[in-house]
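Fold this sequence, please.
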Amino acid sequence: QVQLQESGPGLVKPSQTLSLTCTVSGGSITTNYYYWSWIRQPPGKGLEWMGAIAYSGITYYSPSLKRRTSISRDTSKNQFTLQLSSVTPEDTAVYYCARGDTIVLVTTTQGDWGQGTQVTVSS
């Protein structure tokens, strides 16, 4: 019964850095062989995989977002985080964290997902 919950500010100003935390319970983020992902869904669009951090700590990023994205973890708190820099209104979306057996997650039928959190980029 792994549970994931996203948290962080719901409103971010353009050019600033979006920062979200995923708190995990019921399972360790260091357990072989899981991958911990961030996925987002802009309004009216599909799910977009952003990146992931593996059980080993190795990170993987979507090529389109690699320049602006950083994923890290705090194993003592069983949390992993997302930072997206230089945000614009196009970054407005529902942001999800998830656990899966594969590096890339693009459907909610795969793995375990948090409920998602709305982030709006606006001045």
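The mean pLDDT is 97. The longest strand covers residues 18-25.
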